[in-house]
Amino acid sequence: MNDVLLVPGDTPLSAWREVYRGASVRLPAAAAAGPIAASAAAIERILAKGEPVYGINTGFGKLASVRIDDADLATLQRNIVLSHAAGTGEPSPTAIVRLMMALKLASLAQGASGVRPATVALLERMIVAGLTPVVPSQGSVGASGDLAPLSHMAAAMIGVGEIEVGGVRKPADIALRSSGLEPLALGPKEGLALLNGTQFSTANALAGLFEAERLFQSALVTGALSTEAAKGSDTPFDHRIHALRRQPGQIETGDALRVLMAGSAIRASHLKDDERVQDPYCLRCQPQVMGAALDVLRQAAATLGYEANGVSDNPLIFADTDEALSGGNFHAEPVAFAADMIALAICEIGSLAERRIAMLVDPALSGLPAFLTPKPGLNSGFMIPQVTAAALVSENKQRAYPASVDSIPTSANQEDHVSMAAHGAARLLSMARNATAVAGIELLAAAQGCDFHRPLASSPALEAVRTLLRGQVPHLDDDRHFHPDMEAANALVRSGGVVTAVALPLPGVA
Question: How far apart are CA 506 and CA 463, in angstroms?
Fold first, then answer.
């Protein structure tokens, strides 16, 4: 994987996807000598005026009216990092923390936060060296920034807390020095700049978006395969139907499903004299449901693209006028809304897939043997995998309730409305895992259903997916230990193998 160039203020979502998948990062060579240095110099000039400026020579939050002596400015910044590193819960995944660090790096590089080039350089070098701070996953309400999670990142930079290196957790100061780096001594404004912002919420939301994108594409494939297994019609995917409705995602989804089924002998076998007039909604309405999910994911992607390229620090430094302006960019409401939209899309993608599984195991609806086994009764076949899919979908439904509609005052009512973006975004990976497992079960069920139509074959694209699956999971004749089959199919969906196998362009979000 090549390094990703983080262009401050103009990094595409595709680049953030690469960072999430493991790519390293670098800033343009001119960044440190340009806006970053200018911003740091502005802090010095602002301090020289002797006026109180929030976060630079005052207390924080409800204590903003307390003036801090010049001799205590370094202590002020260290104290805010240590006191705010108050997260709890399991450590955040390494990929999330790395993405959070990269987002913070790109934000600081825009020269609106007042940090020194050396501070930005340390953060960049930590990412490159694979030094990942241990960041508890809970403790942010998504306004006044993701204070607790980002404070754990900042604490690691000053040699406090723990850093993960190669899967091993070490004391932060030891991990830094072992990589040839020295813990940071914070300058004026720097502690606040590091821990203020929406980067934790945004990293989690972006990760959810990228997993939802892969899930969406995989579910298109498994949905098309289920349509073949049930000998469903591709007429509902006719472009003319969707063009009349004018919903972009629906049009693209219908086109994709039609192309996935193109050249199918199974479909050709029941073009005439089929007594069925219409398929169940789980087959017929795939373009409408999946297309709506695609549009919602793209709307969330647009919001997160802006946020990833924005500056959510406070106060913001304007070097051209030597001003420090206090505002509320740290309020993560846009991220909270985006996370809620992604949650809804993930929930519906999994829900529709589960309905297709339920349809396939029901002989009255599918025309296939009960529970997709040649000897129902003696064998249970796909009876319980469908139950598992139902359990996962139900869990996702419970978790899809919007987080953004909640708020609770903090900081002695100074911060009296918060976004709840952090846990709204953090739930997305587990929701995506649930829905991905449902798609894996559908992959097994749909392939099993198609097996009953032999010697008829599906389309070349879908046969490639069946070949991929059958290379790891044989046809189910008699009952066997089902869990390994499910894990293998789940891995094919989760890794993107199902999408790669069809060798066709499928709609995406970024």
Answer: 17
| Mean pLDDT value across residues 395-406 | 95
Give the start-end residues of each E strand in 258-311: none
- Using the predicted structure, report yes or no on whether residue 180 has a pLDDT greater than 80: yes
Domain that residue 339 falls in: 205-312+326-502
Burial class (CB in 10 A: 0-12, 13-18, 19+), 7: middle
pLDDT at 376 over 80: yes
Tell me the DSSP string of 280-298.
-HHHHTHHHHHHHHHHHHH
Task: Locate 257 and state its tokens.
Answer: 């499903």
Is residue 59's pLDDT more than 80? no
Which 3 state secondary structure label does DSSP give 162? strand
- What's the CATH code of the domain at 122? 1.10.275.10
Catalytic positions, written as ranges: 54
Q: Are residues 383 and 497 in the same domain?
A: yes
Q: Considering only the C-alpha atoms of the chain, give the largest distance between any 2 of them, rounded to a whole number of Å.
A: 89
Q: How confident is the model at residue 69 (pLDDT cuts 50, 70, 90)?
A: confident
Using one digit for the tens of pLDDT, what is the confidence trace for 298-326? 999 999 999 999 999 999 999 999 999 99
Pair (29, 45) in one structural domain: yes
Residue 275 has pLDDT above 90, yes or no: no
Q: Do 211 and 193 fall within a single domain? A: no
Residue range 209-216: mean pLDDT, rounded: 98
Q: CB–CB of 476/446 below 8 Å?
A: no
Number of folded domains that form the chain: 2
Residue 171: CB atoms within 10 Å: 14
Q: Are 253 and 390 found together in one domain? A: yes
Instruction: Please report the DSSP string for 74-116 in residue order.
Output: HHHHHHHHHHH---EEEEPPHHHHHHHHHHHHHHHTTS-S---
